[in-house]
């Protein structure tokens, strides 16, 4: 079957990376059923031929107006689609959409009429903010990492940077590779505007935010970068959980050892 990815190496490589990450989400047990979402701004990889492609869907409303995204293109996971299926067939379980000139609607352009995720407005709102800020970040990922979600069930961990400090102290890499730490959004209804707004606010300060009793939302340079940051934080959470399962509270690196990391790796704090 013909695909928009044929003879478009850069776009193809990007979609293959999305499929690879979708496979990791599933393998990690973070993406039961249709859980999780991936949205990637692929505008830079779109050529004039693609720009002139006709829409293959009706015009659909986003639900919000996002002037920063005029004429942008996104790969979006399909609504109700499974990450494990997307891993094998990304263009049958997701699609490429074009944001139309009114900045309030979109149309699917390839490969099939796969309706984007129900969380499209919140993902696009984050992308619009990134574009407005001149950010090089192109990808957003939402998933359900087991240990991080488990930790979010304890109010003790939900104060500002409480979890960040615990996770950073489990293994030096976490502070080095997730130097902004983990933001927290108190529980609100999935898919709600409140969740989108709270997420936008936390993403001003963090690359990864934890949605209480639900999952994480990450932004990254590309989908692999967003995944890596979640993976690093999740690794720390696993170490914490393993120590607790062995019957003790893990000591954690000391404040002095963490400070030493900040200086040695030139970290923001
Ligand atoms: O899209 O995980 O929270 C499926 C979800 C929404
Ligand atoms: Zn979710």
Question: What's the layout of helices and strands?
Answer:
Elements (H helix, E strand, L loop, with lengths): L8 H19 L9 E5 L6 H4 L8 E2 L11 E5 L5 H6 L5 E6 L5 E6 L9 H13 L6 E5 L2 H6 L10 H7 L3 H6 L4 E4 L7 H10 L5 E4 L3 E6 L2 H23 L9 H10 L5
Parallel strand pairs: 7-8
Antiparallel strand pairs: 1-3, 1-6, 2-5, 3-4, 4-5, 6-9, 8-9
Helix pairs in contact: 4-8
The protein binds Dihydroxyacetone and zinc ion.
The site of zinc ion has 7 residues, from loops.
What string, H for helix and E for strand, traces the elements in order?
HEHEEHEEHEHHHEHEEHH
In angstroms, what is the radius of gyration? 19 Å
Q: Largest beta sheet, briefly?
A: 9 strands, mixed
Unreliable sequence segments: none
Global morphology: elongated
Amount of beta strand: 15-25%
Please provide the count of β strands. 9
Average pLDDT, all residues: 97
Keywords summarizing the entry:
269 residues; 9-stranded mixed sheet; 9 strands; 39% helix; elongated; binds Dihydroxyacetone; binds zinc ion
Structural commentary:
This protein has 269 residues and is of the alpha+beta class. Helices cover 39% and strands 16% of the residues. It contains 10 helices and 9 strands. It has helices at residues 9-27, 48-51, 83-88, 120-132, 146-151, 162-168, 172-177, 193-202, 223-245, 255-264, and strands at 37-41, 60-61, 73-77, 94-99, 105-110, 139-143, 182-185, 208-211, 215-220. A 9-stranded mixed beta sheet has the order 2-5-4-3-1-6-9-8-7, with helices on both faces. β7 (182-185), α8 (193-202) and β8 form a beta-alpha-beta unit. α4 (120-132) packs parallel to α8. The radius of gyration is 19 Å and the shape is elongated. The model has no long low-confidence stretch (mean pLDDT 97). Dihydroxyacetone (2HA) binds at residues 34-37, 117, 119, 142, 190.
């Amino acid at each position: 079957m013909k695909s928009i990815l044929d003879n478009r190496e850069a776009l193809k490589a990007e979609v293959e990376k999305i499929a690879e990450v979708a496979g990791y989400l599933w393998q990690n047990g973070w993406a039961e059923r249709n859980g999780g979402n991936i949205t990637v701004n692929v505008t830079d990889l779109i050529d004039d031929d693609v720009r002139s492609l006709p829409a293959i869907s009706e015009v659909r409303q986003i639900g919000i107006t996002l002037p920063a995204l005029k004429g942008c293109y996104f790969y979006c996971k399909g609504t109700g689609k499974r990450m494990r299926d997307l891993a094998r067939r990304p263009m049958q379980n997701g699609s490429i959409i074009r944001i139309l000139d009114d900045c309030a609607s979109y149309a699917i352009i390839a490969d099939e009429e796969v309706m984007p995720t129900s969380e499209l407005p919140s993902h696009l709102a984050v992308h619009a903010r990134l574009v407005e800020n001149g950010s090089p970040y192109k990808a957003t990922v939402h998933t359900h990492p087991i240990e991080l979600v488990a930790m979010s069930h304890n109010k003790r961990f939900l104060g500002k940077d409480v979890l960040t400090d615990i996770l950073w102290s489990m293994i030096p890499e976490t502070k080095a590779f997730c130097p902004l730490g983990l933001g927290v959004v108190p529980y609100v209804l999935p898919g709600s505007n409140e969740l989108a707004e709270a997420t936008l606010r936390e993403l001003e300060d963090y690359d990864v935010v934890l949605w209480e009793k639900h999952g994480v939302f990450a932004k990254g340079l590309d989908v692999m970068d967003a995944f890596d940051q979640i993976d690093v934080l999740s690794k720390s959470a696993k170490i914490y959980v393993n120590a607790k399962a062995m019957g003790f509270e893990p000591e954690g690196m000391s404040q002095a050892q963490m400070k030493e990391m900040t200086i040695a790796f030139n970290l923001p704090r």
